Amino acid sequence: MSKTVTKTTRTIKVDYLARVEGEGALYVKLRGDRVEDVKLKIFEPPRLFEAFLRGRHFMEAPDITARICGICPIAYQMSAIHAIERALGVSVPPAIRALRRLFYCGEWIESHALHVFLLHAPDFLGYEDALQMARQNRAIVEQGLRLKKIGNHLVSVMGGREIHPVSACVGGFYRAPARQELQALKPDLEWALDAALATMRWTATLEYPDFEQDYEFVSLRHPEEYPLNEGRLVSNRGLDIEVNEFEDHFLEQHVKHSNALQCVLRERGSYMVGPPARVTLNFDLLPEVARQAAAECGFEVPCRNPFRSIQARALEMIFACWEALRLIREYEPPAQPRVEVEPRDGKGCAATEAPRGILYHRYSIAADGRILSARIVPPTSQNQRRMEDDLRALVPLLIAGPEDRLTWRCEQAVRNYDPCISCATHFLRLHLERN
Amino acid sequence: MLIIGCGHPDCGDDAAGLLVARRLRELGWRAVEASGEATGLMSCWEGETDVVLVDATLSGAPVGTIQVWDAGQAPLVRERFRCSTHGLGVAEAIELSRALGSLPPRLRVYGIEGRRFEAGASPSPEVLQAVEQVVRRIREEIPCMKQD
Question: Can you tell me the ipTM of this complex?
Fold first, then answer.
């Protein structure tokens, strides 16, 4: 961190943002008590994977896009698969649809456990990082690691391996798990459900800053189920569109200070995606066990305090464990793990709910199956403008206090979003500038 | 013994660790590939007693430079491994394991200095040479430890 003070201006720079996936920097410029400028700076070259996809066969897209992010490969696979299936006019049977939901639950459990326990918890418990927390509060780290491992295991059973899973494909799965394989996961998932409930209760004991914002929340909304792979795009301010209208309503903008594109709602500006948006817009679709836990913990929607995103994540961990158990209980292996897919020319798009929010993919495919163009809008580029707006509102409230507390709160305000900067910009480039 | 190769297959020199793991696996060694995310690494080495981890580094050394650390002796310098896209990477995995008492009794880290990490890039020639050198060194240093 560095600060520059002149008679009238003060600048706060955090050159390395700890505990976010990837690497970014934060720049806040103050004039007196007024925030003059806020920039969340990202140094990475954008959009390389979109170029990388051009000319490749559509069947390669799920595996290529899965490598964009080590934390949410399933989200990339699911968005790619659904978009390509729409381009090719493919529909899959209910058993495959259910398996995809189960696959996604594994990713939500592992990603949320990582963020809640190892990246976000230190902010609330006063530790510098997970390492210091492990030395002084071993139990909480072990709880997080065990939950994450259970999510990883579900992904590896479904996906063939934990890292860059390979079994999901356009049309279904290369291999569907046997009933016994999934049944064997039940004891761990039952423990995970109890642990997620305990996590929710624990988040109720944390202290949250008094900070609320009037967000436009955006998420998928399905008529019957908490959204993962399907639904309309809705907001609390009247947005209610099909996913194929995404680009009519949302605009990606280049900003000078960041290599990542920032996505805004046309004529409305920033908006929030991710757990607080999902629970706000879909609270009625959460299972009773999750809604009851929220009530017991005094968690209410709309979730306008971004620091309470840790509670929204805990709530979604309860959902993901409960939903995984339900899907395993009802699982009947599909007659065929995938439907046959014939290449044809077409265009298709899809949005699914990655752990951090909506992940939009669009593909244009040639008659021989080659990808002509690809567009990927990850959740972090959608939240980036909103993060800057949060900082603009937060800094004036803290300006009278000590500098280190102001800086720490600003960093925490970015971590509230669990930003995956490597997703937003597609690869990390090391930034070693030090002040 | 377990060999863990970390990195990204499509991002230029970041593939260095994966290439070492693949080469050693072809030669009959027990070798796995990992993204480098900390908790995934901790799962990989859980219960292992002797581990060799290979990853790309970005420390400012000439490209292709090979560096070796004994994780049991001292913490790794986090900045060297910041070419990982993960908030918690190799260095954090080692220190978390140390704090929780789950660090393998023997864990050595080979770093191969990279230069280009863009998606779609090929590994640098110097890195490919270093991959072969690391494979050779591991085989020479631990000739009797070949595992199926």
Answer: 0.83
